[in-house]
Amino acid sequence: MIVLGIETSCDETAAAVVRDDRTVLAERLLSQLAEHSLYGGIVPEIAARAHLEHLDRLIAETMAAAGLSFTALDGIAATGGPGLIGGVIVGVTTAKAIAAVTGKPFLAINHLEGHALSARLTAELPFPYLLLLVSGGHCQLLAVEGVGRYKRLGTTLDDAVGEAFDKCAKLLGLGYPGGPAIERLAREGNAQKYRLPRPLIGRPGCDFSFSGLKTAMRQTIEALGAKERTDDGGLERKTVADLAASFQAAVADVLADRTRHAMAAFRKRYPQTAMLVAAGGVAANETLRKRLEATAAAAGFAFLAPPQRLCTDNGAMIAWAGIERLRLGLTDALDFAPRPRWPLDPNAPKAIGAGVKA
Ligand code: KG4
Ligand code: ZN
Question: Does the model's pTM come out above 0.70?
Fold first, then answer.
């Protein structure tokens, strides 16, 4: 079984051809960093236009690199949401066109399901498992019971964790995306230098909150004295490194605490397995991976995170989710409408707090 996967829900234009024996036959990925860097974040209209401009060529290159024609595919999968609607429309429309012309099944993939199943692309990983999904738009703890079967244990009350990385990076004058920049600088920094809050730590449940951490970071920067600044009022590199390390340590403490609670809840519901999986862009962070692994081990859980290139957005995880769904006959009709919001667990109780993200 061979599936083409298309990912266009954010600022990465990506295509991949994956076989059901977990072989990535070919993949192409274009990050629109330069297009958005001027604005310090993603501009939806610019993203949609860039997807439109590059997607056909990336798909053609991917198919050529795999040495396949469209007729050799068993299915065409595209992210159907959640995400920036313009980009999702570009990917879904392209996938539908290929499906219509070849007569092969179309699969609309929930982007979060792409992340949720990504660990199964590189490892023998049976259901159920506990998933910490940490990306630019989401921060959730879920029990993954099977394809399309997710129970949400916790979510963020405000910002997603990747969003917190990006906003703090902006405050520190680092570029977008903020996560990799903060991780790099944090290596040179002292994580104990600045005292930042650990929102919700010690509180019952598995929900997250990051907006207070971002505010504390801004206030800490505003209160910095001349010694920590350059002559023109900017921040000394050492200061930025210490702030980055202190921020990352706070995030690590929060993720560890919330995940500990989730492991306890998961164990009660699924006593037969003890597996923690981390996925999504923030799971590419080496410090956080190590911390989660230690947290899991202390609770008697095994820990698994996909290789870093599969953590951040990519086409292979969408193709793989397509394979998982195709195996079960879960194909989609060509009148599928892209979904800007698409929760993995629509029945999850609302988290306590305002502004909960789906
Ligand atoms: O999964 P992803 O590529 O896109 C979404 O679905 O949102 O995640 C992107 C997010 C960004 O916020 C980025 O700053 C963060 O993942 N990220 C990281 C790292 N690499 C990417 N955060 C922390 N450390 C990293 N190494
Ligand atoms: Zn993503």
Answer: yes
